[in-house]
Queue: 3 jobs
Job 1
Amino acid sequence: MKKSKKIISLVLAIAMVLLVPVSVVSAAPKGYGFRYAGVTVYVHGKASGLIDKMGEPNKKSKSKSCAYDGEDIKYVYDEFTLVTYTEKNGGTEYVQSIKFTSKKAKTKEGIKIGSKEKTMKKKSNLTLFMKQLIRSLKEEERFSTAHIYQSTLNAFMLFCKTDAIRFNQMERSRLKQFENHLRNKGCTWNTVSTYMRTLRSIYNKAVDDGLAEEKPRLFRHVYTGVKANTKRALDAKDMSKLLSASLPRPLPQSMKESRAWITLMFLLRGMPFVDLAHLRKTDLQDSVISYRRHKTGTLLTVEVPPTAMKLIQQYKSMDADSPYLFPILSGNRENKEEYIEYQHALRKLNYDLKQLAFYCSIKFNVSSYTARHTWATLAKYCHFSEQLICDALGHSSTKVTETYLKSFKNDELNKANKVIIKYINFSI
């Protein structure tokens, strides 16, 4: 009888365990943790009540979560930084990661002092992270950057032969293999650099967010510079031919407009095509154009020369409903549609300029970059300082300007070499 009672009790106990709601079971602490101020903090568990128990942090900041569908909250203490995320629409707050900054922090369950962040989202990977960043960029209407991110992701997934790339797969050897893969496909060094710098930026952000392990000098052995192998600047003679030379036959209207655009870009201090296309009617006041660079947001003020003003009057938009100064963009599209419209206009411009260069007997490649690079190079030939050229072009630093002037410096070095050889009267 006693035996049967014990068996019945055991069955009832098992039944009770099986009937426990899933939410109660999942609420049990999981993952790594440490103790601080008498509180056990678990990476993977709920954050509710922790902050009150641990005391007021030195610093607190909020941001839209890149890895989750909600909000990141960063709590900075003397010994560590605690990052949480809150579910969308004010949901539950969870501990996302812990980064130790002091040996005072007491650890538990395998976390070593000074170890890197441990994240709660084990399924997070490079692919998911990049896709979320791309969505965020599109929401911010940064379509050009989103396009670069997407192209980088597509190329890397193709190389890895998977659409689920884990952060721990980012190793020096794999990145070097990716570099070789791109070169073998015919990509230029600048394209390789763009992909590598994009991956580096994303990986560093993932480290900051606690999603990836910090790996010092991870990208050191792949190319992340800028090569100035392609001659983008014309000399004064060719530039003059391109802008004003009489041609044996009349140009099509489309090509006339493209010639006007590159002329204006040159006359307006090497203005990029993206900024010319987005100039608003209100940006022109009397004979002065004030605008913010599309790329950096830098405010520039340009005095319009009389020749440029004639072209503006000739080619300005006649659409009263359009906010834009020129009819490059229609003004009736928004966000992604307008970005696509701009890309179409850019491709058309580059096609027309190649045709125009052929008509003008110019042997070098001509593109939307030509006006800007030529202006900078000729300014250097006229002995203006790199700082002045940097300010005129609206560059973020003289380092950017230096990449424009690499070909100029090479010319100067070659001239110097010829002078030295001539000086010693050397001949074979």
Job 2
Amino acid sequence: MCPLAIRARIKSAWNAFGQEEVYRAPPGVGMSSTGRPPDQPRLRFSNERSIIASVYTRIGVDVASIPIRHVQLDDKGRYSKDLETELSLCLNLEANIDQAPMAFRLDLVTSLFDKGAVAIVPVDTTIDPVFGEEFDILSMRIGEITTWYPKHVRVAIYNEALGIRQEVVLPKRNVAIVYNPLFAVMNEQNSTLQRLIRKLSILDAVDEQSGSGKLDIIIQLPYVVKTPARKLQAEERRKDIEMQLKGSQYGIAYTDGTEKITQLNRPAENNLLKQVEYLTNLLYSELGITAGIMDGTADEAAMLNYYNRTVEPILMSVVEAMQRAFVGRAGVRKKKRIMYIQNPFKLVPLSQIAEISDKLTRNEIVTANEMRGFIGMTPHEDPKADKLINSNMPQPAAETGSDLTEVDRIMKETLDGVMSDVERIVGGQGAA
């Protein structure tokens, strides 16, 4: 690209935070960040022992492992090729300076689960999206929607030029607002997941208490503790029992025969564990996952059900939001799309894929090119690939211009031979 073209592009480029902040070099190397990546999402639940983190991570990784592509459709509405655009580079090379595509998609999904709705913000674009429907995206980030307006949203997003998170107000039409299709299960105040989070918090508090070394006991003394002298006597008795327990190897102490000991930390784990187990199974059922999916032992039917009920709706929500904001009506008219193409070979064995393909084409349900589109392959140039053909049946001989199949040809030749013999016999040519 020539220097004049580069300068013209920079002059017309747009940035969500404003051009001055982007192109002004910060002093030194900028602000520093330690411990965590600067834009890594911080989820509401911080308890690392919670099963919720495992559920979020499992579904998030499975969704994020499926690439999202900027593609061109052919005249028949089928996948034709990947477009060589800046948006394609964001989706397949780097979304921004901090995130590769996989990290970006995982950030998107986990933030979506945590917040219920997130915004994919085009940080750098070729032109201001307000003044043009067709624009290309140079970088994008996931933002938290903090305030909703009729036609705008306030989004908290990481500003890589300053190294801090900032809030910006952007038009809804220019950002991809993704809604969690499992909102009722995950994000409603009294949803199954939120109830499970509260139960796990209580269970963890009980575990912390039981593991703290405290006995939580009440000593009933054989006298009334009201006067200062009796209170002092009771305090001395409490210290005496504490010293006995502290100095005993096995935690044994003795009491007076007139004293009564009551332990307060009665085991509550059994009841809580049953409730946690019930809510966990209910959550699995509502999310379309199983214990086998979590530990990697699920069979093909369970995985297929999981991808259809859980993974695919999330991907559809993401793709449709990006297509609305980043492709627009003008791009759709030109048959441009945002698509995800899931590799079917990961779900079922190759033998089953071949069997399914054979049944669909043999029964003339789909063409070969339509089947290729299902598995992410470009259409074949052979014209026969666009025709409904039963490959197990003889086909018309196109080179002769005849519409007869091979079977028809053989039957016709046989019939012609028989008729010829009949004519010879009738005409006396066959008598000797």
Job 3
Amino acid sequence: MDRIRIVGGRPLNGRIPISGAKNAALPLMIASLLTDRTLTLENLPRLADVNQLMRILGNHGVDTSIDGKRKGEHEVAGQTAHLNARVIVDTTAPYELVSKMRASFWVLAPLLARMGEARVSLPGGCAIGTRPVDFLLMAMEKLGASIDIDAGYVVARAPKGLQGGEIDFPKVTVGGTHVALMAATLANGSTLITNAAREPEVVDLAECLSKMGARIKGAGTSEIEIEGVARLSGASHAVMPDRIETGTYAMAVAMTGGDVLLEGARGDLLQAALDDLAKTGVEVVQEDRGLRVRKNGGPIQPVDVTTEPFPGFPTDLQAQFMGLMTRAQGVSRIRETIFENRFMHVQELARLGAHIHVERDTAIVTGAPTLKGAPVMATDLRASVSLVIAALAAQGETIVSRVYHLDRGFEHLEKKLGACGARVERLGGAD
């Protein structure tokens, strides 16, 4: 398996094009199951998770075609995909596919809404806590579906179609909101979702569904109203820029110093994280072409953060921020409130010389004057990139193994960093 070699100590200068958001792309692709017409998605990122979901959707009958590169197009530009589910050939999502990616469980909603039945394996995915599917199943029951668990599979039925209803989530859930939103578009009557997730990725899905003919009000607030329609049509939609990739590269600049333009990035998608980042001593300015991130040679200041649902500090940037805080001039506290077991990167950061103490849901980070390169291992998607951030500032060479975690969520990472002066290369060979 591939590894990544990083030699630290170089500032980043130049530009990094921001890819389409993985967390928006996956539900958008799944939404193609709701219609027999073609859904065209522009700015789709080239990621392992996207490719895996294409295979999963193909199992249900979705035909996918990808446009070729246009002349002069940047090698890391997003791709345009055309997805057509003219005929649903199978309403079962088997364990061997769903176990590879949790988000694929969401096919339950469009299959149930369009076909009146679905049989979907309980999910696998990143080992960062239980991430129960209870809320998703509750949402389907509120829309009139019968739910049974049989041999590790969720068997959902709504032979007369889904019915509008009220879905009140006891806890904010992005996956639950995605699922409820997709199912409600084809339900008979109106649906009210309360305590809905407000994340930009939910808004992006709602905008795409609206282009397909769905009637949705309130996306981006905690209450979403959906008036069901008989059928949805095709549409063309550009995937929003990836706010997690934006925050990750901004933190890399804060760690190393330099001046980088994050092309296509939107600060409004992650304002809380950028506000906290500014407190560390980095300058972040929204320009016409994207976000400019500058860091002079001054020390990194310690900042306390707590992960929260949008618009708070995103859990998907927690590991990266911890990587940055390992070089802060003082003590910072990072509290994780969204997922349990999301501090698996602590031990690997310690191998680089980081001083981190974990007390229940809080990591206490005492900044170290220097970090030193070492062999480290990625444990999940976001944890892996925290190691990259730390390695960019470490003395000497760091080898990151199990980089397939990185490939799930970061498109052309080594090319993007390398173009800005980082010494980073991909190595083949043993894990």
